[in-house]
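hey all, quick one before standup. I had two proteins in the batch that finished overnight and I want to keep them in one place so we stop losing track of which output belongs to which input. First protein below, input sequence then structure tokens straight from the run.
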Amino acid sequence: MLTVPQGYILIKDGPATIVIKKEYEEALLKLGIARPELLLKKHYSADSRSKGRGLVPSIPVKKIPDCRIMLRRYLRGGLIRFINNDLFLGKQRPFNELHIGAEACLRGIPTAETLAAVSINTVGPFYKAYLITKELTACVDLPQYLKGLSKSSGSFFSEKKERVLIKTAETVKTMHDKGFLHADLNMKNILVNTLSPENIYIIDWDKSVLKRDLTESERSTNIIRFCRSMAKLKQQEIPVTEKDQELFLNTYWKNNKKASIDLEKLKQAVKRRRVTWKILNR
């Protein structure tokens, strides 16, 4: 059964099932989110942001001044994408992400406001899925921010990088302390406000879960995953180092022993994946 978070409503419109934030209902339906493929075709451009497996266009909402939305189409990964790129079973995936994203906002996690989720019935039990979030203005992902920052003078760059990594670690710890286990915690799912870099946002709650408490093992696995993304992106000329990974782990745990254990686990994980990364980056 579909769970609708407080402040949202459920709408059926032909093949579309929509869960939408009540205050945005009129504006978003007028915009055309019940037919998301038409909306995507209209707004795809060179300005669309790369997000995960596809482009995510930034779309103005005419009925709400200074409001833009990000419309993301769910796409499959792995080898199955060559056979089935965007069809899913079960209809719950976008609504689960909306629920987690709404809870994250409610519990004070800095994130993009989730405005709506849409599933479109296709053939039989299959559906296509879409998520609409409010655009975080003046923000770029963490790799982009660090790459731009690296053009600054040495001491300025080092100081600013250290600050943003510390803030990221603190934000991730807050997320964990409030029970959120992020399914894809990596550098690209951290946004930095370029005008005020102390403002860090965690995005993309797909397949994430909310629990009463996270175990130490769950926390460790999640932050090692994040640090692993630092090692992977280093091969793509993002200016991060092993010292940055160590800084992140020490800031998170505030315990040298726990940070050292995770650092060793991280080194082993990176060693296992390094060959695969080189092949994929060719």
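OK second protein, same deal, sequence then tokens:
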Amino acid sequence: MISLAKLFTYPIKSMQGTQLSHALVQETGLTWDRHFMVTLEDGTFITARKYPEMLLFTPTLTQHGLYLQAPDQQHAWIKLDDFSELNYPTEVWGNHFTAKIAPDAVNQWLSHYFPHPVQLRWIGEIPQRKIKKRPEHPLSFADGYPFLLVNEGSLHDLQNRCPAGVAIEQFRANLVVSGAEPWQEDHWAVVRIGDVIFDVAKPCSRCILTTVNSRNARKHPQGEPMRTLIQFREAADGSGDIDFGLNLIARNSGIIRVGDDFSVLQTKPPRLYNEKVVEEIPYVAPCAAPIEKAVEIEFAGKRFTGNNQQILLEQLELQGHSIPFSCRMGSCGSCRLTKLSGSVKALNSRALSESSLLSCCCVPEAGPLKLELN
């Protein structure tokens, strides 16, 4: 028998979550799940993918708003009534909508923990954001869909395959079910938990955040468990998706509880995945410490002086450029750029083609290096 084993909500996107015994399912997700988010001053979202230390912040819902504790134990109280009355332009993964901004005092306090000014935003009582492919459905600040489900059986199979420890918290799921066979969820199309029916929107494509330990905010040095997942969960359609879990949309509202029965109402053919061995990068002991050299780089009409030691994606981010990315391992292809001039050194065979490159796996070699979005 399959049942709901665990429930999680994440009030502030990319910060610590709360495990619950029961929760209310709404159109936008579980109540208060990802209703708050940290952004740049222009409304562009930021997450623990780039700032892993965000995972060490602890938000707690209060009667009137939020209590937010920072890693150094400093804290702030934020009342919902103190958020801006007006809605301001906000963006998540190219999805543009509006949201409310926290008071200046809160944003100034929060900015002390980042290398640039940030703002805390609230989705508001009536969310303005919609699911891109399902515009009739409102959405919180979640990446793309209201609910994320993980099968414990698949987690255990991954743990057996992976040389590193893997915790359920690394996948930031809302719903965790037990009693199903490993990867049985690949066949699910419509499911029910208690009295609530969910449609499976798609498999959940994973990113570099799964490689970060949520307890200490440290990335795994070998990129686990993504390195293991890519060996058998990379989509065969060439998209570069590395799947683990399911994105869901609820058909109705209702309370669900840990221990509720889980039923599969409809199945479908599973997505196909490649089986492969991850390419190993041979280690060559250097004869001497590498010499850092300056490399002139131009991107989006702006020039700066980079170096020949750091991956290109990181150098562009340090200059304030927002480059799409997901896995940061050279698999998903999200960070692909077009190379117009100059040369780079690729860290694996997939990272470089005749005219384009994966910025997460390439290091500048000689300039002037001129790049543009693919």
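Flagging for whoever picks this up: Residues 294-373 form a domain with the Ubiquitin-like (UB roll) fold (CATH 3.10.20.30). Residues 339 and 371 are 5 Å apart (CA to CA).
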